[in-house]
Design a protein that fits this description.
single chain; 281 residues; alpha/beta; Rossmann fold; seven-stranded parallel beta sheet; two-stranded parallel sheet; 9 strands; 52% helix; binds NADP nicotinamide-adenine-dinucleotide phosphate
Length: 281
């Protein structure tokens, strides 16, 4: 069992949503959280909450989608916080569209934020972790990493890419002291990018609470889990994993399940709500 106390954890997407709850929970475990996100204000609020319970957070505003600037950012992180023991790749964005309607800029933004930033941050931090023969990289993927979600194809691609890249490097790093985990949550109802759109998850798809995602992340670090699928409760999680196994044999059966659950309709609705939100802002 790996303890978090005394560790330094670099967490992307710490300013709001599940990442903010993760930052607070990790700080309560006695770790120093180095929080990255674009919103300085969001980070400051999380930092206040952490300091109120006696924890420590270093807030560094940064846009992780600027992948070529991440090496400079990591120098800043290390000079502010010292060596990083644990990297949590949590920051992500989702843009819902029919595939042909994505602009190249949108595709690049989703892939850079959700996938390339995670890969590049890990590449930059790995040499120190390997030298210390200890370290943990944890990636927050999604059930969309396991089965594509229509009208959310670029997000699905980013999360599937994250899962497979992590799966490959976990094997490369076996025996090095550096471990890799990926957590794949289902719809989260109380916080984050689904609840922000105020669109409810499909009735039978399962919904999780952000505290369960946070608990799964902490457990994955402490017990070095390779991959964690998380959907509402133990029964739904087992059913979800069983469906994914069947879908390996028959992707069309999986398409049918997604249609029956209402995943395409949900994402079309989210596309509408998102474009209304963009127009208002
Ligand atoms: N919510 C769900 O239902 C659900 C389900 C499955 C998986 N997940 C995964 O869980 C993770 C957290 O999602 P969430 O629901 O908490 O999302 P969220 O509420 O939208 O929060 C996303 C976080 O990422 C940060 N971020 C976005 N773009 C960034 C950029 N370019 N540079 C730096 N930080 C950036 C945001 O901060 P700024 O805007 O301040 O930059 C924010 O802190 C994501 O990986 C998501 O894919 C969520």
């Amino acid at each position: 069992m790996i303890a978090l106390a005394g560790k330094t954890v670099l967490l992307t997407g710490a300013s709001r949503g599940i990442g903010a709850s993760m930052a607070i929970a990790i700080a309560k475990e006695g770790a120093t959280v180095v929080g990255l996100s674009r919103s300085q204000q969001g980070l400051a609020q999380v930092q206040q909450q952490i300091e109120a319970v006696g924890g420590r957070m270093i807030a560094i505003p940064a846009d992780v989608s600027r992948v070529s600037e991440l090496s400079t950012l990591i120098k800043e992180v290390k000079s502010a916080a010292g060596p990083i023991d644990i990297l949590i790749n949590n920051a992500a964005i989702e843009i819902y569209r029919a595939f042909q309607n994505y602009s190249l800029d949108e595709i690049q933004r989703v892939l850079s934020t959700n996938l390339l930033a995670a890969i590049e941050l890990s590449r930059l931090l790995l040499p120190d972790m390997l030298a210390q023969q200890t370290g943990h990289i944890i990636n927050i993927a999604s059930l969309a990493a396991k089965k594509g979600h229509p009208y959310d194809s670029i997000y699905s691609a980013s999360k599937a890419g994250l899962l497979m890249w992590a799966d490959a490097i976990r094997q490369e790093l076996s025996g090095s002291g550096v471990t890799v985990s990926t957590v794949c949550p289902g719809y989260v109802k109380d916080q984050g990018l689904l609840s922000d759109t105020k669109v409810h998850a499909p009735r039978f798809a399962g919904v999780s609470m952000s505290k369960d995602v946070v608990a799964a992340v902490i457990k994955a670090i402490k017990t070095d889990r390779a991959e964690v699928v998380l959907n509402e409760n133990a029964y739904m999680t087992l059913l979800t994993q069983f469906l994914f196994a069947v879908e390996q044999f028959s992707p069309r059966f999986g398409d049918m399940v997604n249609r029956w659950l209402g995943v395409p309709q949900l994402n079309l609705k989210r596309a509408e709500v998102q474009s209304a939100m963009v127009q208002r802002s």
